[in-house]
Write a structure and sequence with these properties.
elongated; mainly alpha; 78% helix
């Protein structure tokens, strides 16, 4: 018992150190998005996911990136305290690195993404909040009961939500123009064949054919 209490006081086992690690990781990831926003390089994410943000930067529509990233973040923050694992790819890279910046840009708030010091501070603050939420949920759920609280259902919720974006993107591309729609359909089919998120394939396909068959701006 004494050894257990001593371990809980150890830096590597303390709850506050988890919050610190999440804050530092989120700060780096958010700063990476700042680098991509300013220099078009440096984002910590999959190419297909970054492509969603790129579409928003070029066209001004951040809905796909915001919805995709936010769904991952919400699901992973709920999942983390119940299963004891925080998915860095879903919660931090996709949620903090793509979802939250897309939400801010969509609302016209660009300062935290344009400024490197602000990006670090914003990312660290978001990460600290996520860490505190996870510790708080875990304290009043798993640590106080033997129930899984439906963690088996919530696992993969972000992936399931993200799958609905692919068909929506294809439909939107088809409404924009036939060539762009064909590109989105082909890209989605290729990504589906290789078991990758079809939303990313649809976006890349639409961008590729859109470069050759540009949609005139009236």
């Amino acid at each position: 018992m004494d050894n257990t209490l001593e371990l809980k006081k150890n830096f590597w086992f303390a709850e506050w150190s988890f919050v610190l690690f999440v804050a530092l990781t989120a700060a780096g990831i958010f700063a990476g998005t700042h680098m991509y926003y300013v220099y078009q390089v440096g984002a910590f994410n999959d190419i297909a996911v970054v492509a969603m943000l790129k579409v928003g930067l070029e066209g001004g529509s951040y809905g796909a990136a915001a919805a995709f990233g936010a769904s991952f973040l919400f699901a992973r923050v709920l999942e983390g305290p119940l299963v004891g694992i925080l998915d860095i790819g879903g919660a931090l890279q996709t949620g903090v690195g793509i979802g939250i910046p897309a939400l801010l840009l969509g609302a016209g708030i660009v300062a935290p993404i344009e400024s490197f010091p602000l990006a670090l501070g914003t990312g660290a603050t978001i990460g600290a909040i996520i860490g505190l939420i996870i510790i708080g949920i875990r304290k009043y759920t798993i640590n106080a009961s033997n129930s899984t609280f439906g963690a088996d259902i919530m696992m993969g919720a972000g992936n399931a939500a993200g799958r609905f974006l692919g068909p929506l993107i294809v439909i939107s591309a088809c409404m924009a123009s036939i060539p762009v729609g064909l590109g989105a359909t082909a890209g989605a089919a290729i990504f589906y064949y290789y078991k990758k998120p079809i939303a990313g394939g649809a976006i890349l396909g639409a961008m590729l054919l859109g470069a050759f068959f540009a949609i005139p701006v009236k």
